[in-house]
Amino acid sequence: MAHLASVGSHSVNGVAALHSELLRTEVLRDFAEMWPERFNNRTNGVTPRRFLAQCNPRLARLLTEALGDEGWITDLSRLKALEPLAEDARFRARFRRIKRENKAMLADWIRTHNGLEVNLDSLFDVQVKRFHEYKRQHLNALHVLHLYNRIKRDPQIDLVPRTFLFAGKSAPGYYLAKKIIHLINAIGELVNHDHDVAGRLKVVFLENYSVTLAEQIVPAAELSEQISTAGKEASGTGNMKFGLNGALTIGTLDGANVEIRDLVGPENFFLFGLTAPEVAERRARGYNPVDCIQASPELREVIDRLARNEVCPQQPDVFRPLLDNLVGSDPYFVLADFAAYLRAQEEVSRLYRDQEEWTRRAILNVARLGHFSSDRTIQEYAREIWDLEPCPIALPHYVQE
Ligand SMILES: *Cc1c(COP(=O)(O)O)cnc(C)c1O
Predict the structure, then answer these.
(1) CATH code for 48-376?
(2) Which of 137, 165, 211 to mutate to test the pocket of ligand 1 (most atoms within 8 A of CB)?
């Protein structure tokens, strides 16, 4: 399909810088050699109307007050002017209070739909997106199991409480993705009511993910999980929605994460994992996931708990296909990135204990992500791909005011 599209198009866009480069040099190299002028990059964006003004009215009001007017809604680059406010303790307190109110709203939804109580003081750690092995929701699930292991080993351990939120669908015939959804729900059953856990970990799976549900989740998120195998996520747009609503990102150098990190500054982004060239190199060298298990006692414990059927004892071997996939071939380098992911997550927990510094970095993320407005993307398409001139229109009277 991509080959036919390359022949039939006058412009080919990889939707984020990294993927546009991969198209040119690898995926569609022959076509790029034949028609170099077709290949370009216009990085994706999200609409600030839906994904800020509409879904997060509290933050929208604060932005309008801080920036002096509502102009940011149609010129998102104006968020830049928030930067100095990251150093203002009163502004940080207001920003933090809004996040907490948004968390309380989502907690109400969770109570109604999942019958679970979540702790508003816990870190809302969110991964919502379609289910696919390359997006690695199972890497996140292994981290939850690791924290569970630490609590079971030492129930008195001082851990930052976390609420893990998952949502997403898979293609109906995608067997392993369905297994990952099952695994997350089974881990929820295991940890949510465990006496030793004592409410410090909650795993919530919100069903029937949609844009409307995303509008409820995004404003409440504090940590945005963008943990795809490097080279696999063309852009991602969830990453942009979360950052613009004041979540910090934990992520790989993949898709638009690369540009997000460049813009917010590496000190305001939790980076981990193999890079796209490193993934390619490991694959070429002959990757054996068993080596990773041997090198990491934490990973071994997590894999052992799964292998001993302790996650879903009433259905022995229900996760065997997933386990065999990870231990046997691990095509998406989940085990290869596990140790680095744990270290990055420890850094997340450490920072979360310092709420002032966390909030400071969250505000800087909002201030520096105005680039990811779909208005900017569409302007670029209009001018540089479609060769269109602006055509001002008179709005009908009922739209004005
Ligand atoms: C934004 C969005 C996506 C894309 O999310 P990614 O994390 O970029 O994969 C998918 N589904 C819904 C409902 C969304 O709102």
Answers:
(1) 3.40.50.2000
(2) 211
